[in-house]
Structure formats: C-alpha cells, structure tokens
Amino acid sequence: MQKKQFALGDIVEMKKPHPCGTNAWKVIRMGADIRIKCTGCDHSILLPRRRFEQRMKKVLVSAEQTESQVKDRE
Questions:
Q1: For residues 29 and 45, is the Cβ–Cβ distance under 8 A?
Q2: Looking at the predicted structure, is the pLDDT value of residue 69 above 80?
Q3: How would you write 21-72 as a 3-class SS string?
Q4: With 90 as the cut, is the pLDDT of residue 64 above it?
Q5: Which residue(s) pair with 14 in the sheet?
Q6: pTM (whole model) above 0.90
Q7: How many domains would you assign to the chain?
C-alpha cells in the first residue's frame, strides 16, 4: 500500500462527512499529529497522523494549485 501524499494548505476529502454537512477539510498543521479545519463551519480537530491517513480519501485542491492561481491574478 502506498503512502497518501498531502501537504500543508491542501483541501482534502475525508471518508465521513462532518455533522455540518461538508466533507472538505483544510490541512493547517502537520507533524506527528495533523490539524485540519472544516471548510464549512471552521471547526478544527487534531488527529494522529496514522488515523488521518486512514480516514483521508483524496486531495481535492492542492496548496500548489491555490498558490499558482493567486500568482496568475497578480
């Protein structure tokens, strides 16, 4: 099984939706633990890296894409 690739600032999709109804989370802290923030209601949670990797489905928007869009506008 290959490791899932994600970076600081990425918007990721988790397996289960948040009670507010959205399924998109932004990675705001990385280390042994990963802090993610709900894009719907701004609630943040801290998960151990292993549990985060198990529950993450895919990266919806990478931080690199976001940065390039901002640079294009300038």
A1: no
A2: no
A3: CCCEEEEEECCCEEEEEECCCCCEEEEEHHHHHHHEEEEEECHHHHHHHHHH
A4: no
A5: 56
A6: no
A7: 1
Q: Could you tell me the residue range of the domain that residue 15 belongs to?
A: 11-73
Cβ atoms of residues 12 and 59 within 8 Å: yes
**CA 54 to CA 21: how far, in whole Å?**
20
- Evaluate whether residue 1 is within a structural domain: no
3-state secondary structure of 73: helix
Digit-coded pLDDT (tens) for 10-61? 999 999 999 999 999 999 999 999 999 999 999 999 999 999 999 999 999 8
Longest CA span, the chain:
41
One-letter identity of residue 73: R
